[in-house]
Design a protein that fits this description.
Elements (H helix, E strand, L loop, with lengths): L1 H10 L41 H10 L3 E4 L5 E5 L2 H9 L4 E2 L27 H9 L5 H20 L6 E3 H4 L3 H10 L6 H11 L9 H24 L7 H4 L3 H4 L7 H30 L1 H9 L5 H11 L4 E6 L3 E3 L2 E3 L4 E5 H4 L34 H18 E6 L4 E2 L8 E3 L1 E6 L1
Parallel strand pairs: 2-8
Antiparallel strand pairs: 1-2, 3-5, 4-12, 5-8, 6-7, 9-12, 10-11
Helix pairs in contact: 1-9, 5-7, 5-16, 7-12, 7-16, 8-9, 9-12, 12-13, 12-14, 12-16
Keywords: Heme, Iron, Metal-binding, Monooxygenase, Oxidoreductase
Family: Belongs to the cytochrome P450 family.
Protein name: Cytochrome P450
Amino acid sequence: MVGRVALLHAVRGEHRAARPPVRRGEVLMRVDLDARGSSELYDESRYSDQGMHAVWREMRARGGLHRQVTPDGQEFFAAMRHADVREVLSNHTAFSSAYSTMLSVRGDGDVAAGAAIHLTDPPVHSELKRIFTPLMTVPATQRLAQGIEERMRELFDTIRGRESFDFCADMVTLPMTVTGALMGIPTSEWPVTGRATVRAMGGTDADESDYQRRLNLFEAHTTIMTVLGDVLADAPAGDSVIGRCPQTADVVDDPGRDVALLNAYAFLMGANPTIPQTVNQMLILLAGDDDLWSWFTRQDRTDQKFIDEALRWASPINHVLRRTSVDVTLAGTEVPAGSLVTAWLGSANRDEEVFPEPFRFVPDRSPNQHTAFGFGVHRCIGQHVATVGMKTFFDLWRENVRSVSLAGEPRHLVSNFLNGVVSLPLSVSWR
């Protein structure tokens, strides 16, 4: 089972290699759609830094849905405006999650479709969610906060005093300081799991061959599945996510698949992008904006408004995929049942109709209806844990760092799914 799942993910090539970022200030690009549709949104060579925001802005201005096509000829619709994205994410009866969440995983759908929590619809999704929700309520998260801070302080100690370092490489276990104990993964496995989850998001070498990229993905996914399988075999505590995963097999009666393992994998990979990638994007911004850094250092604590704006700004997930289960009309467009529809979260988070001055970071922006955690029944179950983790990180960064600047160009993940940073060279002056 471990090898089969990992191999299918790798062979489908759901992630891409990183390349150096394009320069800022690029010329606004016009999106020209013919009768068949454009492949512009799918084209992963365009994705690095904030490079697609010009395209998304143009598409929002034109309104409606946008017909697109993948390189292999698969048509899909793209919702770019905040209202349309929210409708797609909120209306689970018309826009089903029980297929795939990623454009690059299509065909017969994701191997975990209908079994993993993020790839199910109510009532199955609701039953699965009830298994894990008690671990991630606001009171439960508050009980986790002290342990998160202690583990994160220990991680800070590993880089303290170093004037320059690659934040991504040296803080690879950052998300595990927040979710590792909650997941039930032994601390001895955090470094290897942290590296594997980063690698599973895509390659870091723009020159690697397609074969090497697929091999690396296979190895990363196999590592993750092996760690999770071993933890499950050791009967983890019931107050951990993995400890509760065996209960999912009672909800999803599918002897042909390891439902517990698929859900453990879903939670681990779901936790990986939001925390580190929001932090990465914010450090790039703080390192290059003296006014923002001055404001940041004057704060006593990191509040919710700052976290919400960081999530809006970073938008770690570019898009999520849904498939229509009925004929539906969206943004004036007739969408037949069985159609693929993408909700572009990164575009919605810059919608001029919802966010005044959307291309300016406003640390105390309110209201802030960002889409980073989604909407409706699939709103992120771990949002409270992620928020506590990010607040803790930014409080510790303010406490420990006098100044920060870029020591080199960040390298961005080239992926139409994840807005990720894979290398972040920093120069730091410590307090």
